[in-house]
Amino acid sequence: xxxxxxxxxxxxxxxxxxxxxxxxxxxxxxxxxxxxxxxxxxxxxxxxxxxxxxxxxxxxxxxxxxxxxxxxxxxxxxxxxxxxxxxxxxxxxxxxxxxxxxxxxxxxxxxxxxxxxxxxxxxxxxxxxxxxxxxxxxxxxxxxxxxxxxxxxxxxxxxxxxxxxxxxxxxxxxxxxxxxxxxxxxxxxxxxxxxxxxxxxxxxxxxxxxxxxxxxxxxxxxxxxxxxxxxxxxxxxxxxxxxxxxxxxxxxxxxxxxxxxxxxxxxxxxxxxxxxxxxx
Amino acid sequence: xxxxxxxxxxxxxxxxxxxxxxxxxxxxxxxxxxxxxxxxxxxxxxxxxxxxxxxxxxxxxxxxxxxxxxxxxxxxxxxxxxxxxxxxxxxxxxxxxxxxxxxxxxxxxxxxxxxxxxxxxxxxxxxxxxxxxxxxxxxxxxxxxxxxxxxxxxxxxxxxxxxxxxxxxxxxxxxxxxxxxxxxxxxxxxxxxxxxxxxxxxxxxxxxxxxxxxxxxxxxxxxxxxxxxxxxxxxxxxxxxxxxxxxxxxxxxxxxxxxxxxxxxxxxxxxxxxxxxxxxxxxxxxxxxxxxxxxxxxxxxxxxxxxxxxx
Lengths: 280, 311
Description:
- The structure holds two protein chains of two kinds.
- Chain A is mainly α.
- In chain A, 74% of the residues lie in helices and 3% in strands.
- Chain B is mainly α.
- Chain B has helices spanning 2-24, 28-53, 61-79, 83-104, 110-129, 153-177, 179-189, 191-196, 201-220, 223-227, 232-235, 238-251, 257-276, 279-296, 300-310; strands spanning 140-141, 229-230.
- Chain B has a two-stranded antiparallel ribbon.
- The model of chain B has no long low-confidence stretch (mean pLDDT 83).
- At the A-B interface, helix 5, helix 10 and helix 12 of A face helix 5, helix 12 and helix 14 of B.
């Protein structure tokens, strides 16, 4: 149960990017999990060769990922959005990107499990009789911090508000003197940058292989849809629900069922209430 | 009438040529590779009925394919049913799943539909993993029945696949040329407008998802006998999803020729890459080619040819 709560904080971190890109910008970036795994491998490489802390690497790499995200968005914009055929072909485009990233990683690093080392991994503290592992606690705290940071970015800064606006009315935004494409590029970059940090958290929690991204497609989209498209608070709530549900499921029925939880919740959420818990 | 007779003759000729090729007994690898390529012809064609004609992108191809395969495994385990029964049953069960997916389109469109089909595939995989009777996560060995009608069993399966792909392509071509195809095209371009014009959108969508499901299940049913060892990871491989999508996209989604061209080109390239480089490389090729085509030639090879001709 506690593990589920902590897992929820981490899931929130993983899903923020999708929440921002898919929820607010309406871009079906199904490749987001692959960017997360890319972040994991960046953390792995830096950890192995320079002994850098995984989460620190994740933070250091956010500008790189931001640029990467901006480039991907420009490509997407030029090829699809401007021609007005974004939804389905764009989806296929990102599906291809997902495979390119995943296979590139497995060509470069093979399909073995990779992990990072840090002083706090393996230790735990005792809170009222419940042991809390640092490898879960740290990602959860970072995840909460990321959620808060993104929330502040969206509600307090000019660009954040512009991102909220672009999802509602492009024309009005243009009349206010802001370029929607530039705003979207920024938002997409921020979303991908979040993946860098999320990837570092992921590899702190558990070893990673290139095909781990497939498990996370369902989780991310389940959380985003369940939380209500683009609602940051909803993302956190949904992530915690999913984390708890998964850990309960794997305690009572065995770990092989836990993956079905996220996709099951996703299916039900899509079929019953597509607007999500805290939907607009 | 003369036209459909001609189609029938062409179809029969292809099946005949396939059986003849099967009887030639060239290098057995040709049949192995040929089976996979033809299997992709069926899969790509089936995907295109829903994805290309109706515009509903299905990421859950592995679910339908594996459901066909596992229906076959179940029947082999319980009754040792003959191959034609397996194929029919596989198609039937997957068709029912397709019908269910069709009702899902009532609420979910575009991106949401695609994500739901992906979710469906994973949920189904988890159920199979936890179902011991059909092998669970460890998988199950399937013994091929002795004495195929002709040649070795692989050449026989190859000939069966030739027949199935001809059937699939004929069905797709028929749909495309009939009012059903025009109705689907109308709802692909604008579902509300089509509905307003009196196109029975729900019935057409249910028809498309069911036919697509049946054909995918049919493609999967001979799979246990082909690999002789069925396990969930290979049957539910996401490769099927990306290939099913990439092949029509490369060939061109608006016509029945597109998926066939795409499947033959990409399937052959993948087989060559698997043999000469590595099996990971072939997925890489698919990814790159898919992105390149979606960005540069959204109409596929058929579209390119049309553009050149039109000039």
